[in-house]
Amino acid sequence: MNNQNCPLEKLKSYLESKEKKEIKQVPASLARHLEECGSCRKISQNPELARIFLNLDRNDNKFKKILDGAVPKDGSCSFLEGEVWRIVSGEDNEKSFAVITHSTFTAADGCKSAVRVVPVFFSPNQFDLDEKTDLVIEPEDFPTGITALLEWWNERPILVDHLEHFFGSIHEQILTKLKCLINEDPIAKNLSSSGKLFRQHRIACGQLLSSSFFKDLQTSEEKLSAQQEIFLDFQANENIALAASDIGGFHKKIRELVDKKSFPLNVLYFEDVGIKMICAKKASFVVEIKTSKEVKSFASDKNGVLLLEEKQLLKILKNGAQTISIRVN
Question: Which pTM does this prediction carry?
């Protein structure tokens, strides 16, 4: 952006008309400039930047970092508390800002790396703020050089994948105050009606930022619950070995393993008949039992049903069952 060459008044007029829904198409004279000027084009396409542009004196120094970015994310980033990041989210790659309040973590095994953040809202309206509980940072104390509201009441997890550019860090004193607000969660007794609506809107926006985090967590949990194979070592200790010395104890240990691992299998024992296994997913599976003399494999039918007959089991136990694995195909 170059104030001497950019048609700022035309851009302002267009954005104001667009905000009021009085115009849909970019005027031809401005469109030509937007094709050539990446900075003005970013402002015209990003509602957050457009709002800041309309509310602030159009000084290119204030927009230098916010338009051109700071330090791109790479493998050396640590994602520490207090860091200010530009984040990208949604199908349209919407840009916004956030401050990290909790460094990198994983919600569960198999999940992607995540951080906890508070979203940042630039140039807030004073009528939407609560004087005692809202945390507003002056331009000289915030890396982008713009007045910033740190939405501590909207703290949430997001995936590290959404972090795009690092802009610097807030002062230690501000970070301490921010974390105190998060921990204490004070009630905004004097918040106006418009302020309450503002917070509701921003929390709804925040939920969109966190949606991929929760989708990732759900996927991980589904994978764990749909684990494809379980394994039991009957020689792990003396208690397990003794319990598996007869068919009843053998069945009990397998059932305990299935329950512990949330494996999709029902294991039933019928005296004088044997052990019947039924896959809850109606998928075929294979049972492999290793003894001191051999390895025996048993395959279910295509509907996921298998009967281990009593005479087969007695022979296995006589030879000394060592391990059992069950694998869903």
Answer: 0.55
